[in-house]
Write a structure and sequence with these properties.
Blueprint (H helix, E strand, L loop, with lengths): L1 H17 L11 E3 L3 E6 L6 E2 L2 E9 L5 E25 L5 E3 L5 E7 L3 E2 L4 E6 L3 E24 L1
Parallel strand pairs: 1-4
Antiparallel strand pairs: 2-10, 3-10, 4-10, 5-6, 5-7, 5-8, 5-9, 5-10
Length: about 150
């Protein structure tokens, strides 16, 4: 009887341990795992035409909080462009919330390649995911790039 009870206990524990599911990692467009200077986007598959939207997801890894400086670069192709870059943060890579209402970069009347003068800055960023959404307006063709400069705290 003791053996039967022990076998049932071990069977129950085994089922309980293996029955737990863990969320899978969302496939990001890029990773940041320490102090870095990177840009995301900027390939022909990222070309925006007229009113269009582009989304980038970056997975932030590491054991430290980081400071971020974000800039928007528009590689001009034709027309007159404008747009707004907004940022969102997430704990799981699925559910996002706005980082702050003021955290955006606006580009207006773009007729040549530009590095926008505005910067989005985060101190002690401690979320595992950051999403960038660029919404273009106007009648134009551009290739947006988001430059990210990070420093470990």
């Amino acid at each position: 009887m003791k053996k039967l009870i022990s076998i049932l206990i071990f069977a129950f524990l085994g089922i309980a341990i293996f029955a737990q599911s863990y969320p899978t990692e969302v496939a990001p467009d890029g990773y940041i795992s320490g102090p870095a200077y990177v840009y995301i986007g900027g390939t022909t598959s990222d070309t925006l035409t007229n009113t269009d939207t582009l989304t980038y997801v970056v997975r932030v890894k590491g054991n430290y909080t980081q400071d971020f400086n974000n800039k928007l670069y528009l590689d001009f192709v034709s027309g007159t462009a404008g747009g707004k870059l907004k940022t969102y943060k997430s704990m799981d890579g699925v559910t996002y919330e706005v980082t702050a209402a003021a955290d955006s970069i606006t580009a207006t009347s773009v007729t040549e390649d530009i590095m926008d003068t505005e910067t989005i800055t985060y101190d002690n960023f401690n979320w595992p995911y950051i999403k960038y959404i660029y919404i273009q307006s106007g009648t134009a063709v551009t290739v947006p790039r988001i430059y990210i400069y990070t420093k470990r705290n």
